[in-house]
Structures are given as C-alpha cells and as structure tokens.
Amino acid sequence: MTETSNFTKFQIANAINPHICFRIDVYPTYYIDYISGEYVTFDELEEIVAKNYRIWQNLRSNVKPGLEWENLSKRISSIREYFNAITNIDVDEISYQVEKILIERPRYEEGKKIFNIYISAPIDRDSEFAKIRDFTQYYLAVNEEHIDEAVKCFVELNKEPVKIGSSYSSTSPYYHFPALYLLRQDFSGYRETKEEIDTNLINPLALRCKELESEVQKNSLELTDFTDKMYGKLQTNLDNKANEIEKIKEDIEAWRTSEINKFKNFETVYKDKLTYEEPEKLWQERARWSTFMTFVWAAVAVGSACSMMYFAKELLQAFYDYPIHESELSAYISKSFILVALISFMIYMIRIIVKLVMSNSHLASEYRQKMALTRFYRALLANEIDVNEQEKLIVMSALFSRIETGLVKTEASSDIEALLSVITRSTTGIK
User: Fold this and answer.
1) Which sequence spans correspond to the domains of the chain?
2) Can you name the residues that pair with 53 across neighbouring β-strands?
3) 109 strand-pairing partners
4) With a threshold of 0.70, does the pTM exceed it?
5) What are the average pLDDT values for consecutive 10-residue runs of the chain, which has 431 residues?
6) How far is residue 277's CA from residue 271's CA, in Å, rounded to a whole number?
7) DSSP tag of 202
8) Is 384 left (phi over 0), alpha (psi -120 to 50) or beta?
9) Before 279, cis peptide (omega within 30)?
C-alpha cells in the first residue's frame, strides 16, 4: 500500500496485529488478584490505558500512581499520532517506532514481537480493583499525602490480613489508615450506598457506553468511506480481469486443440511403453545386481589374496621349523616345489575370482546398454520419429540377444536366437 491518504484504524490493526502484541506487567505491590501474561493488541492496550487514566483523573492524577497512567497514556497517544500520519504500512518500521516511543525492546515469541509494559500502579483488570479504588477515595478524604505508599500498604494487608494489627498501631498515616479502613469494613458490615454505587459503578459505565457509541459511529464512518474506495478499485479491477479472462479463454481453447491432437498419438506410444517397460525394469535390476556382485567379488578377491598370503607364510614357517633332518626332508619333497605349488595355487584361485569380477562388470555394462537402447527406442516412438520394420527388427534383435558372461565360450548362434528371430519376424510382419 502506497496511498497518499492516511490509513484507517482497521487497516493498521489488520496489518500489525499478526506481528506485534503487548503485555501489561503490574508490579505485585500494586495488585491484589491480577493475572499477568495476557497478550493484547494495540487497540486493546489503548483502551485499557485510557480507561485507567480516566479512573485516576477522577481520583487524583497529579501524584503516583496516577502519574504512571498519565505518562503511559501520553506514549500511547504518540504512537496513535504516528499511526495516523503514516502513508506506507511497513511492519518493521512500525515496530522500530513503537520501540522508540515505549523505550522497551521487544522479545520474539512464536514469530511475534512482544512488548512488555511495566507499570507501578493498580489496574482495573485486577478482580479486586474496586477495593483499591474505594480505599483511595477514603484515604484522599482524610489525607492527601503518601497516596502511593498507602495503596501499596492496602494491597499488602489484603494479601496478608495478619499484618493488620501491627499496621494499625503504626504512627505513619499510610500504614495506619489502610488497617483502620479494613477493620472498619470487617466490623461495621459496611455496604455501599446508592449514591456511591451510582458514582463508582453506574456513572462510569454510562460514560463508557457513550464513548463506545461515539467510537462505533466513528468507526462506522471510516468503514463506509473505506468500503466506497475499495468498491471503486474492485470494480476497475474486475473490468480489467474480465478482459484478461476472455484472452485466457482464447489461449486455453487454442491449447486444448493442440493437446487433443497430441493426445491422439499417446495410445500408440503408451502401448509401446508397456511393451518395453518390463524388460527395461528387468535389465535395470540385473544391472544393479551385477554391479553389486562386482564389488562383492572384488572384495572377495582382495580378502582371499590377503588370507592366502597370510596362511602361506604360516604354512611355510611351520614347514621349515618341522624337526626333521634336512636330508630326510629332501628325500620326500623339495622346499622349492612346495613354494612354487603354493604360489601357483594362489594365482589360480585369484584368477578365478578376478574372472568372476570381470564377468559381473561385463554383465552390468551389457544390461545398461540394453536399458539405454530401450529408452532411446521409446524416445523415438514418443517423439513420433518413424521406425521402419527392418530397423525395428535390428533393435529387437539387439535388445533380446544373448549376453556373453565371459566365463564359458558359446557358439555364434543358438536355438534361442533362432527362436527369437522367428518371433521378431512374426511381430514386425517381415516374411
């Protein structure tokens, strides 16, 4: 959004609420039963601060704790003035400005920036706030000094009533009067009069209703104006989109005609795919197996060579250490003959294993070639490249011919290849 006009309250709230929220933390000495930790939006924070500021204005705002709400109210008003002046909604910039005004660094939680606002004053969200408010009225009627200390003492005595006796005997008014007030409440069975109920409950509620009515009317006008603007934009966008949709329809129809023509050739291609898909899978599987066996036999060759060398060493050492006289040993067998025989046996075994390695490597290579040839042939069919019957015969002969393992020599032709030739000729129609 880059409009030159200011944004409405709803637009700003919708933009920042998913990313920024606030939490009011009241120091324990100022509340009796308040559950902190509730996250609120900026609009909710503004309403809470305004309500509490009005309450302390009616009591006495030029001393603490009324000054706390006055200072916070000024900072909230500064943030609202900043919101009313912005012409571009940038959440990061808004968060930076809020941080500067509140002088509070945010913390991150679940992708949101949380601003903790600490305040040393009672809050109306305390379920026992009415007691604090009534006591403050009572205290101001008899003494206008040390209101902050008196409120904290009253809160402490409500939390720990056992301290009432010691506080009652204190010479300090802000200790004495809270205890006296609580004793008066307990022993006299005091109840609020109709005038006090009107002053403390009915009149504030009536005033709040009028403020809400005024706020709703203001928001209604903003919403109506915003709706009119958006309707004009939407109508223009709808007209543009209608023209785009007509063009898209034409493009889709042309694409549909082209795809239908392509699809007519898919049936033949699909049949050919089914014909060669299973052989390709088999060759791929055999190629993997042959590759695996190549590494297995290579490992066996290395292991066998090492084992043979070790056992040959041990055998020769045991043989030469045998307690037979040299003349008696040479009468039976020559040491050189034993050494040559062992080396020949080792070479023979290693040759067999190497042959198995080479055979499996050769088979894997042949299977991959057949798989690649199958894919190439299927690609020719998929791209509608004409393959005549003679060429098809050559391809099928190459695909299904016998694979030499390299272990046993075979003749140039066999009964299987002759049968394959007959089947190929019958499938391709060549006589």
Assistant:
1) 1-126, 266-385
2) none
3) 112
4) no
5) 60 89 92 87 91 86 84 92 88 90 86 90 89 87 86 90 80 84 73 57 67 69 70 82 87 84 65 62 74 79 78 70 53 64 77 77 75 71 64 65 60 51 54 45
6) 10
7) I
8) left
9) no
